[in-house]
Each structure stands twice: as C-alpha cells, then as structure tokens.
Amino acid sequence: MAPSGNVPAAVTVILPHHDCAEYLSSAVGSVLAQDRPDLRLTVVDDCTPGEEWVSGLLPYAGDHRLTVLRTSVNVGHLRIKNKVLESVTTPYVAFQDADDMSLPGRLRHQLALLERDGADLVGCAYEYIDGVGRTTGRRRMPRNGNLWMRLGRSTVVLHPSSVVRSTVLRALGGFDGTARLGADTDFHLRVARLYRLRSVRKVLYRYRIWPKSLTQAPDTGFGSAERLAYTKAMNAQEQRRRQARTRAELMPLLVAPPNDVDFALTPVDIH
User: pTM of the entire structure?
Assistant: First the structure.
C-alpha cells in the first residue's frame, strides 16, 4: 500500500527482529517518524518465542506504511533480508536494527546524497548508546568509502545505518545466504568493486551496544568461533577476487550465494 497522499514509496526499510521486545517499539517509531513520507517499513520477526514483542507495535497498528511478518523458522537477519528483497519494488532499500534508533532526518539526508551525487550505498555517522540509551561515543565513517577500502580499511559503513539502491542488491544477489552473521562486511567488499560507497558526516543513527546484541553475545560476537570462521572464509573469497585477471573472472565472485534455508514469511496481525 502506498504512503498517505498516494505518494509513491521511494524506500523500503527492512527491520529484522528476534527476542528484542525491550527496544523494538522505539526502533520502529524512529523509522516511522522520519520526515520522508515516501517510505515503507517491513518488520520481520525471526521466530521469537512468545508474543510479548507484538505489544510494542500496537501504537503503530494504524500506520499503513508498516508491514509485520514472521519467519516459519529461525534463519538470521541476512536470509530475512534476502527474502524480503524478492518483493521490494522501491528504488532504495534501507536497514535498521531492532535495538537501534534512527535520528530525525536520517533518510532525508541519505536519500539526498543518493539522488544528488549518484552514490550507490550511503551510510552515516552514528553514536554508540548503552542498554538504557545513554550516549557512550560517536563515530564518523569516511565520506568516500571506496578510497578508504583501497587503502586497506574494510569497515567503511555501519550496515544497519545504510541505504542502498535496489538495483545494486539485485545485481550482487543480496547478502550471503549461507551465513547468519558477518556477511554485511562481505557485501560492502563486493559493492566497492563496482559501485560508489559514501557516508553522510552528520550523526543520524544510534547504535546500541549491550550484552545480548549480535556483535556482543558470546556465541555470535566479535571473537566468537562462528564469526572468526566466517571472517576467514570471507577473506579467502576476497583474495580470489583480487586475483581475478578479467571482468569475466571477477563477476561470478561478486554474486552472493542464495539462501540455503527454505522458509516462509507470514503476516502478523498487530490490531
């Protein structure tokens, strides 16, 4: 359904969720409060036990820009994004984590950079917050991500703070569908081979660091066996790309493997 006033939607925001009821409502509210009327927000619950998380969405039940879905099995945020992308019709796709918040003007500033400067993926500066929302630091990402990647830096965009052209996602096959984590960096490495990565220098996103977040939990966080194994495989694949001598050799290495888990998305009634 189109946003109010029959304004065609420009951007679909994808917000995966799993067992994060404490923060989900504020994350959703921060997206729906953006000063771009031409957005759609798709929240996908990844088989969270129980229904507590649904109550946090009740304040937004009447907002026709919001779609709420649930996976048939737990698959992780990357496979969810690939699945949702199959039905996206907007020219841009934005991401949002369920425990983070978008600051006012985030989408306006990022879409302006995409539309004005011909960028293909745009991030932004962000602030770190703790479990109760206190600011603990700030980080600006490089204005020109491609340049910094050529200089050896692999992290030039915070994935959940990014907006990307739908055509780029389709050309590269979205995200690595065999992974549960870590493949956002792999996506940026692949994008940088063909497209322009840029960032807005203004702080537009609040990134929460707390014990249960994907990057901090013992089983999935930095230093975990799963993340180290994926990073090793990702680096090996990147090395193969660097060794490609022709575009014909490179292109297959830039396309992500599809989802390796079959699952369904079913609508959730939040009324």
Answer: 0.94
Helix 183-194 and helix 247-254: axis angle, to 10°?
150
Per DSSP, the residues of 51-113 read SHHHHTTGGGTT-TTEEEEEESS---HHHHHHHHHTT--SSEEEE--TT-EEPTTHHHHHHHH
**Per-domain residue ranges of the chain:** 4-267
Give 31: exposed, middle or buried? Use CB within 10 Å, 0-12, 13-18, 19+. Answer: buried
Spatial distance between the Cα atoms of 250 and 244, rounded to a whole number of angstroms: 5
Which CATH number is associated with domain 4-267?
A: 3.90.550.10
The 3-state DSSP composition of the chain as helix, strand, coil percent (nearest 5) reads 35, 20, 40
The upper half-sphere exposure of residue 38, i.e. CA atoms within 13 Å in the direction of its Cβ, equals 13
Radius of gyration of the chain (CA): 18
- Encode pLDDT of 65-116 as tens digits: 999 999 999 999 999 999 999 999 999 999 999 999 999 999 999 999 999 9
